[in-house]
Amino acid sequence: HTGYFGKWHLGPNGPAIRGAHRTSDGIDAGRLPYNPDKPESFSYQSALDSTAKQQARLIEGRAPFWGVIDTPTEQLTPFRIAREGVKFLDEFASGKPADSFFLTVSTNPPHFPHFLSRELAAEARQLTPVIPDSLHDDFVDRPWWHGKPWWPSMDTSEISDEEWRTVIQFAYRHMMAVDDSIGMVLDALERNELLDDTCIMFVADHGDTGGAHGRFDKGAYFYDEVWRIPLVLAGPGIEHDTKSEFVSIADVGATLFELAGGNQTRLTPRDGQSVLSLVRDKTGAAERMEQAVEFPNLAFGRYDLYNGMSFPVRAVRDERYTYVWNPQSIDELYDNKSDPAQMKNRIADESLSAVRKRLKDDLTLFMADLHDTLPQRVGELPPVGTIVATNQLGP
């Protein structure tokens, strides 16, 4: 018995079309595909929502970054979506339409804008913000587009250091609101005597610079603030521990298949691999050693489009270094031990030539395994920032 509530982001009513028994009404119905002739399409509507329409909702603040709104706390997005998940669990427990269930509660927040109720805004201002060391990055020796705002959420030119404190405080309280909403779902599992027999996965789709490199949200770059995301797994037979192995969002699907009783064979990097061998408790250790999956502590990244604009970038990160291949600009190499803020591009540092070659070779092999044709298409790429749908340069 399947339920999907909240953000879908892949076209209107996708979960219902794919067979979900319960889903949000009109999920993402307003996200019409990009069409330069239709102002109601997603790309145009997003720009409007980030400026005039959102500004009209604010009692205080600055759209699209932060704001105080009249909406009661319980009506904020995380809680509305969580209540749909709670209703699904209550229905399942009372009617038992199947032997098992699969529930997705997909909350847009803590994605910007950080719009909080009066109550939560007051609490936000009591929090202690951590200002990123890279807030005033000058982007020297980096690809030129890192320093250019390509979307309303990236234009932070009017935000002072003091206002950045407020932005970060509101982001913190927004995250805490999501934690509270997840607690509502966990309480429903416990109330319905489902908690002890349920596996729970918490994951994000991307990070947020949150002031790092003077930026907001994400973009066509592989700074750790954007690239590193949380993954929490809990349930029967899963040990309480923190793991240092690198895993990927591509591994989520394979993990869920195994949790559901499947035995998926990993065919390509795109398929991912289950992480359960890393997190199961100590029982059956000998059997698990025979089935253990290798996690080489390499993370690979691929970027093609930012809001419809062309930004082909590939990246690899190991436990210390990040290497980024920018086929239309300067490459990047960061020593994340000596430079955790990733402010100094070491790509031209001959003392790191062996590191550069090793990571570039790893990335080349990964792209080949993925049948990534970018190396063969470099000469055909449109200028960076070109809107693919119109073949015109973006803002």
Task: Please characterize this protein's 3D structure.
The structure is a single chain. With about 400 residues, the chain is α/β, with parallel strands linked by helices. The protein is about 30% helix and about 15% strand. Strand 11 and strand 12 form a beta hairpin. Helix 4 (about 75-95) packs parallel to helix 6 (about 160-190). The protein is globular. About 30% of the residues are buried.
What's this model, at a glance?
This protein is α/β, with parallel strands linked by helices and 395 residues long.
Topology as a string of helices (H) and strands (E) = EHEHHEEHEEHHEHEHHHEEEEHHEE
Distance between the termini: 45 Å
Average the pLDDT over all residues and give the rounded result. 89
How much is the radius of gyration in Å?
22 Å
Counting helices, strands and paired strands, the structural category is: alpha/beta
Number of helical regions: 12
Low-confidence regions? 284-290
Q: Percent helix among the residues? A: 25-40%
- In total, the number of strands is 14
Gross geometry: globular
Strand order of the largest sheet: 9-10-11-12
Task: Summarize the biggest pleated sheet.
Answer: 4 strands, antiparallel
% residues in beta strands:
15-25%
What tags apply to this protein structure?
single chain, 395 residues, alpha/beta, 4-stranded antiparallel sheet, 3-stranded parallel sheet, 12 helices, 14 strands, 30% helix, 15% strand, globular
Please give the structural blueprint.
Blueprint: E1 2-6, H1 14-17, E2 22-23, H2 42-49, H3 52-55, E3 60-62, E4 66-69, H4 77-95, E5 102-106, E6 114-117, H5 118-124, H6 161-191, E7 200-203, H7 224-227, E8 231-234, H8 251-259, H9 276-279, H10 285-291, E9 299-306, E10 309-317, E11 321-325, E12 332-335, H11 353-369, H12 374-377, E13 386-387, E14 392-393
Parallel strand pairs: 1-2, 1-5, 4-6
Antiparallel strand pairs: 3-4, 7-8, 9-10, 10-11, 11-12, 13-14
